[in-house]
Amino acid sequence: MHRRTVIAQGRWQKTAGVMFSIALSAVTTSLFAQAAAKPERLTLGQAFDAAWSQQPEVASLAMRRDAAQAHQRAAKAWTPEPPALEVTGKTDRLGSSLGTREYEIGLTVPLWLPRERGSSQALAEAESRAVESRTTAAQLRVAAAVREAWWNWQRAAVELATAQDQLDSAQRIALDVGKRLKAGDLARADQHQADGAVAAAQATVAGAEAASSVARQALAALMATPATHAKLTLAEPYAEPTPDPSPIDLSAHGDFQWLRDRAAVAQGVVALTATQSRASPELKIATTRGRGAAGEAWQQTVTVGVRIPFGAGPRYDARLAAARAESVELEALMTLERARLSGERDTAKARVEAARLQLVAADRRAQLARESRGFFDKSFRLGESDLPTRLRIEAEATDADRQAARARIELAAAISAWRQALGLLPQ
């Protein structure tokens, strides 16, 4: 008997263990399925990183850096161009065939013009800086597009959430009206009004869903992954950090840096062109071995010469004038760009302050509207107020909630625009 009891207990423990393993496996599978089905939450910084990674500037950045480094190495070389090897031979075999022979081998070395090498090095360094500032300016351009699409998506999401709340409230009112209609407290006309409010809310939800889908796909298109991001949801909190209100040097702005480096490149071109008033002179070192006729002894000579081209003339004047025009134009653009960036910074800061005041007023209105909705909801249930008044109060409360939610989005968008005006990338 004791042995049978032990065996039975062992079988029960084994069965229980198997059942526990199956249950644990089922729970684990369910959790993994839920995790896989859970939509990914996207932040503004992630959206920017994804959009920037798809830009052509990213693909060409490494090659542009290599080109700038190659220009720097070329500017530091001993000669402006590589030396050239010359090999010539002279014979009278096709004519009198007296045995005249002459062979020459020489090396031609281009020479830097005065100040040309230093100007070339300065230009190469300016081009290297321009590569980096060009990348920063491209990032700001992408950031502006991503921020605009992002906040449009945020606005659409707020409209959708508010419309869904309005629909839920209208459905609750319609359900309450239906119960009171059966009890004989309300007329069928009241039911029609309540059902009409539900239908209007459903139409609003449909429009908000369409607008949200369009805004989401617009953002996904910038990220170049519309299929992957079709199920993305917004991450909380969705506001960027408020920038430091202290004045920021606009010279550090990416757009201004790009323009300033372009101007520096143009100035470098002017300086280099000014030194290149003629083609590069050449130093020639050659040795010649020859004889006048058959039977004579071979003679060897050494030749050292310098080739100095004449001035370029009108062609040089045209190149110098064009380079100076480009430099003057970029200098003028720098003045305009500084004024534009300063105006955008001040406008963005003022917009943030105005958005803060609007948010305070919208929150106050929403609070009062919610309290009024509670009062009239209780009054309607007690039969002290009619349905049109109840629907009007509900519509006012919904509009107040929408305005408050929209005001929060507008404040966050204003802060984002302020950061954009300061040349700060999304976080």
Automatic annotation (TrEMBL):
InterPro entries: MdtP/NodT-like, OMP_efflux. Residues 1-35 form the signal peptide. Keywords: Coiled coil, Signal. Residues 338-365 form a coiled coil. Belongs to the outer membrane factor (OMF) (TC 1.B.17) family. This is TolC family protein.
